[in-house]
Amino acid sequence: MNSNPCISIVIPVFNEADNILTLIDSLYENSTGFVHEILVVDGGSSDGIIELLRCDKRVKVLKSKKGRAKQMNYGAQKAKGDILYFLHADSFPPEDFDLLIVLYLQKKHLAGCFHLKFKSRHWWLQLAGWLSSINHISGRGGDQSLYVESKLFRDLGGYNEDYIIYEDIEFIKRLYGKPQTRFKVIKKPILTSARRYEKTGIWKLQKVYFQIYFQSLLGAGPEKLYEHYKKIL
Q1: How far apart, in whole angstroms, are the C-alpha atoms of residue 33 and residue 121?
Q2: Regarding the domain delimited by 7-193, which CATH topology (the fold level of the hierarchy) does it fall under?
Q3: Which of 13, 42, 74, 115 has a CA-to-CA distance to 164 between 20 and 30 Å?
Q4: Helices (DSSP H) in the chain: which residue ranges?
């Protein structure tokens, strides 16, 4: 690890033209100089996001096959930073997020995330955000973002591209499984949209998430998890 490590932010997108510029503005406003590059990896959008970003020199736009695991792996393959930071297009990291990531990585926490705060006043989503501050695999999710040392990411083989859903958790489980990772939950909130809950219904979507989590514990593979998700939603 360099004495002045740098961060590559990898953002997988699919039809996120309405959100992406606001997110990029926020990343620049809340970073302190450790961000080396922002890689937006598109999975075949049809909303004009490529054209929107084509002249924006703040980002590098990449095209890959659709699927968050595929898109994030491709972004990681092209990234040059010592630290990879995977971020959803509707999640906004806190002030000084890059400095916090670097500080904890230098303390040998080789991977970690921020705890979650939804853009919603619903009591369950407020509670879910609070529960995400607990450092346990059951409290993890992709909306919390994920930083990981580049070398560790490569050593673990990256995201499993067999997973269409649940790819974040599957990879984070492998991170927790390595004691040297010392996974860190940074006690600063990352603000994320509740749009999926609002569209589907909070209890319906939460029930599906619980079912998928317990099916995974019982050994269900990526195809079975996706079939269940697709059948319900």
Answers
A1: 33
A2: Spore Coat Polysaccharide Biosynthesis Protein SpsA; Chain A (3.90.550)
A3: 115
A4: 17-30, 49-53, 68-78, 97-106, 123-131, 150-155, 167-176, 195-200, 202-217, 222-232
